[in-house]
Amino acid sequence: MDLGIQGKNALVCAASKGLGRGCAEALAEAGVNLTICARTEKDIVDTANEIRSKYKVSVESVACDITTSEGREAALKTSGPVDILINNAGGPPPGQFRDWTREDWIKAVDANMLTAIELIKSTVDEMISRKFGRIINITSAAVKSPISILGLSNGARMGLTGFCAGIARDTVRDGVTINGLLPGPFETDRLLGNLKVRAEAAGVSEEEMYKTAAAENPAGRFGNSEEFGKTCAFLCSAHAGFINGQNILMDGGAFRSSL
Ligand code: NAP
After folding, report:
1. 229: which of 22, 217, 245, 246 fits an S-S bond (Cβ 3.0–4.6 Å)?
2. Whole-model pTM above 0.85?
3. pLDDT digits (tens, 9 = 90+) for 175-194
4. Are 6 and 23 in contact (CB under 8 A)?
5. Ligand 1 centroid vs 90 CA: distance in angstroms?
6. Which of 47, 138, 188 to probe ligand 1 with, by most ligand atoms within 8 A of CB?
7. What's the pLDDT tens digit per position in 151-171?
8. Which one of 11, 19, 224, 227 would you pick to mutate in the ligand 1 pocket, going by the greatest count of ligand atoms within 8 A of its CB?
């Protein structure tokens, strides 16, 4: 299917690997020119080179921390006018709520709520003036089905979700949709790192923990970045202009509900 977004410009945040990279690749496959960022320079430059040579689109890389104002400024300076914004950043660490200080909360809210809001603020009016825009926030299944040790993530991401639920109803009239994409367990470095910690705590091998955790999902496996990216690209497509203000859960059906 032609996604109808060839030649558009996308800013994909936190995209040297994992879910962000999956989104960048799928958009590149659809002919979208990219600006991608991550903190580690070598990784983001290598990723940009690989995507550019594979899909023959323009790919600019920016080594920056997108959760800082300097980082956002650098990314936006490189990207120029953005038609498609993919908001993403590393998630806050797990823990116990009694241990979290005000500083921990500010950090989480800054990274997983205010960073996305600032980027939306910087790009949405230009999208509105061009009568086309797609904004996807990569959040988490925890927005729908919270996990207590991920309270910093639940709280900050819920704030972003609530904010976007309001403004999405204002922007869509001018062709700009805003949606959340909520990953359940996807096999990325982050998930494998978490499994390693769980395996050590349980005194089992990493392989055993991997098999047990994958089997817990109704699909009997973890998701992969490619399927995540292609879903994101569809939501950014010309065909998805009537999908707005939604939070699309990709978790293999782990969250049990009829609707
Ligand atoms: P990942 O495989 O660890 O990849 C994270 C990517 O983001 C890397 O490219 C990393 O590069 C970049 N990054 C992290 N912090 C950044 C920052 N401050 N500024 C710029 N780039 C940054 O992680 P992932 O699994 O794709 O997760 C992506 C997001 O989805 C996270 O917020 C995570 O909490 C959420 N999520 C993931 C899952 C899952 O199962 N994978 C489930 C629910 C939610 P550098 O380190 O070089 O910056």
Report:
1. 22
2. yes
3. 999 999 999 999 999 999 99
4. no
5. 4
6. 188
7. 999 999 999 999 999 999 999
8. 19
